[in-house]
User: Fold this.
Amino acid sequence: MTAPVVVILAAGQGTRMRSATPKLLHPLCGRPLLAWTVDAARAAGAAKVVVVGGPDRALAPGLPEEVVLAVQQEPRGTADAVLAAAGEIDRAAPVVVLNGDVPLVTGETLRELVAAHERAGAAATMLTTVLPDPSGYGRVVRGADGAVERVVETKKPGDATPQELEIREINGGVYAFAGGDLLDALGEVGCDNAQGELYLPDVLPILRARGRTVAAHLVDDPAIALGVNDRGDLARVRAEAQRRIHARLMAAGVTIVDPGSTVIDAGVEIGADTVVEPFCTLHGATRVGGGCRIGPQTTLIDTTLGDGVTVPHSYLTSATVHDGGSVGPYAYLRPGALLREGAKVGTFVEVKNSDVGAGTKVPHLSYIGDADIGPGSNLGAGTITANYDGARKHRTVIGARVKGGVDTAFVAPVTVGDDAWTAAGSVITQDVPDGALGIARSRQHTVERYNERKSNKEIEEQWPRKS
Assistant:
């Protein structure tokens, strides 16, 4: 197959989205809409990818470096948009043209289209499918020989006849052209339609009139016609995209207990024998190893988990958990949190920008921020690393095999040596040497027989009640 030039039409205003964000930059399962078609073009082996955008160049910041942006100065229709990219089209190579708001077209589908186009020796080959309800789509009108005569748009009353509206084969909005034939025909496209625009499908009858073949590549995938014009369309496309993501992961050995309640972005990777419980969301560049158990009700954002990790009822963002780690329930791992092999962060524990050593446990009700903890340590309930002095952040260093008592506050910067201990209720402000016990609390004062003597004047004078 000859590597095609792929032209993606993305200059539409997207006014029906009712959004300050350009339509094609709205996210779909973790990627902008436009990224789906760009990725499909790359997967199809495109020699060049050209995106046609508007004069505001709003799409430019999100495009990969190797993608070319062509500008359509005025919104004059799809044929005019292709003309805006004419300088990037190779007359001797096939050209694939598709809309940027039809994100479910795959690289495999584009490769098959180009292959069918070359086999047919056609000037143009269009991707079509049959819909039970083709309302709103351009209808494919075929001649007696089965070849495509034209595509009739149905956006406005008067664009199509009643007979043409009965046709259920629709234009998928994806075309393969011979580059030279396309460029020659674009100059003859007129605007005799209800909207006064230059429609790309009008190239097809021009090519037929020149005796060139216009073929159709019919596919049994109605999803290629799922375009996004408004937020309702986006929700429908998202449902299908999510179904495909789930199907791919389950085919690879992942158990998704309830797909209907599980959200997984397109870029997420999950290893075999991992179980994803209901009401989990996995976003961004998340990587999950094999044999893990995620959820229920867990959120992972740009997080990396090793093999055999368990994370019930927790929220992790830009965190890393090595093999055998345990997080939660109800834990919060913030950016820079690193749990090494077999480490445990338990119930109602928050960790930020900290390295928790192998086998170390922070079981419950603690905040660990800007800390380095060695292997095999155990920090009691209510442990706090006081890392902020009001102006700067400071680090706490806790060694290996440290036993931290409950309700211990480490006031950074402070270092606790290997095999050290801290007493419960301590506020550690000075370094604790290896093997030492740090005690930092006031002495307890006990008033004997206080209950019997509480009405005694001496007790009242010594321990006055607060008014």
Remarks:
- The mean pLDDT is 93.
- The CA atoms of residues 116 and 335 lie 49 Å apart.
- The first strand starts at residue 5 and ends at 9.
- The chain has nine helices and 39 strands.
